[in-house]
Amino acid sequence: MILITGATGNIGRPLLRELARAGAKVRALVREGATNVEGAETVAGDLGKPETLPAALDGVETAFLLTPVSQEQVAWKSNLIRGGAGSGSQANRESFGGWGGTGFAFDPGAMAL
Fold first, then answer.
1. 60: helix, coil or strand?
2. Do 73 and 100 contact (CB within 8 A), yes or no?
3. Cβ(34)–Cβ(46) below 8 Å
4. Nearest to 30 by CA among 59, 58, 10, 9
5. Is residue 38 part of a domain?
6. What is the pTM of this model?
7. For residue 46, is pLDDT > 50?
8. Which CATH number do you get for residue 38?
């Protein structure tokens, strides 16, 4: 399973479409109340609310972390990685990809930001 954040945006939507076309199992992280995303399982969550993320990451092997440029970007990405540590996710630091460089390391037990 591949999780895509930002799956309804200008980059995430075509990425999701191509992955689905290639036969990949894709899950889209969407805001509460958002409509379903064609070609993907959808799960409601918010990168700013860490408690919503473990369910989104359950069973995920790879996550594409796409966030807008913001002062909150490091916190949002860190929340997702920490959420993966508390879920059934098989994702590891090599399988968390993203747009934009925030330069954090994946070590949920010892991450200090």
1. coil
2. yes
3. no
4. 9
5. yes
6. 0.73
7. yes
8. 3.40.50.720
